[in-house]
Amino acid sequence: MKKYILKDYEEMSSKAADIVTSQIKNNPNSVLGLATGSTPEGMYKHLVQRHKDGEISFKDIVTFNLDEYYGLSSDHPQSYRYFMEDHLLYHVDIDPDNVHIPDGLTKDIPEMCKNYDQLIEEAGQIDLQILGIGINGHIGFNEPGEKFVKGTHLVDLTDDTLDANSRFFKSDEQVPARAITMGVGSILNAKSIILLASGKNKADAIKMAFEGPITPQVPASILQLHPDVTLIVDEEAGSKIKGEKNE
Ligand code: PGA
Question: Annotated catalytic, 143?
């Protein structure tokens, strides 16, 4: 595993954007696995800027998002599709047909999940998967549990996650209790993975995931089995793991 422990959120964001930029330049047809949340916002800002500066094009890029709230329509301001449009998709030259985000309003969950996995497979697997991490060690919305789940599936969100997500909603009752997430199988199938984390409240999750046992109780710990993971953390999130700070 490569590891970057960087000064702050800004350095984390620009390092992550550098890796995505190289991926796009090396392979303009790349399949990217995208994440939502506060953590990758800075990275998307850089990518939009680099697109505006003419450095990168998304014209032939294909994307698959990790997850979506169950029950929120795509135009709900807290839906992950809305987030992606707002932070990246509307600002770059991506072909809307190449954008994939689980349908939060699907009437047939098993069918939608099966199709999602099939589309990823047909796209030739994900070249670069971007991940954040929950304070409970989740990746996507793969929550701590008794076993790792391979494919896309519906999950009941844990209290930790509901609590963390509530900051974006007017009241706790409005926080969706379920979500659709890519499984750890699809994540592990990605050719390369970057995981970003920032802030003190992520330090324990980073330590458990990368220096603890591999266990479904800490879903991110399965990344220890992947041959090409790059961890990009700021000093606070990296404060409990071994390693020198990178300049
Ligand atoms: P955050 O969420 O980036 O908003 O902290 C990350 C996650 O829960 O995976």
Answer: yes
Ramachandran category for residue 191: left, alpha or beta (phi over 0 → left; psi -120 to 50 → alpha): alpha
Q: Which residues lie closer than 8 Å to 26 by C-beta, 6 or more apart?
A: none
Per-residue pLDDT tens digits for 161-196? 999 999 999 999 899 999 999 999 999 999 999 999
pLDDT digits (tens, 9 = 90+) for 94-116: 999 999 999 999 999 999 999 99
Ligand 1 atom closest to residue 198's alpha carbon, by position in its atom list: 5
Task: Using most ligand atoms within 8 A of CB, pick from 12, 84, 133, 193 the residue to mutate for ligand 1.
Answer: 133
CB 180 within 8 A of CB 102: yes
CA dist 36 and 164 (Å) reads 14
State in Å: Cα 165 to ligand 1 middle.
9
d(CA 5, CA 69): 31
Count CB neighbours of 246 within 10 A: 13
Written as six digits, the tokens of 29 are: 């047809």
